[in-house]
Amino acid sequence: MGEIISENEDTFDETHDRRSALTAATSLIMFGGLASGYGTFFAMAGRFLFPSGSNKAWMFVTDVQGIQPGQSIPFSSPTGVRVTITRKSESSPSNPTEESFFALSSVCPHLGCRVHWEAQNDRFFCPCHNGAFDQGGKAVSGPPAADGQNLPRYPLKIVEGALYIEMPYSSV
Ligand code: FES
Question: Which of 57, 85, 114, 168 would staple 103 via disulfide (CB 3.0–4.6 Å)?
């Protein structure tokens, strides 16, 4: 009779141990899932609230001789940001520097029309409402000037005769 009671106690202990282990494992899995979920949420929120610029990259545009003095070319980032890269008329024909070029958004900050470079007037021009911008992107006439809406400017650099632009390659 005593042995039967002892077997029941052993069975009870084994069942209790398995149940405790199962509960601990389930808790661990749930905690891991919650930590992973909240971690992802806070990482996304952090990137949105405190953009660090780490989503930018230098991208190849062209050989420096691919844009002649006074000319401009369109360029788009992988995220769809459209810019116009222009070479100043007065730049050295044979040895241009980074200061010989400038890159400005080609989307008018007023209502989103396409702006274009006018070499003869040394300005960017938006035909929708006669908005005009200087080489630095500063609005100089039309509604953008009245509202202080300038064109965003993007950094350029030259490496071994090739022109590069720094632009976003992903969005939050
Ligand atoms: S949209 Fe460019 S001036 Fe209005």
Answer: 85
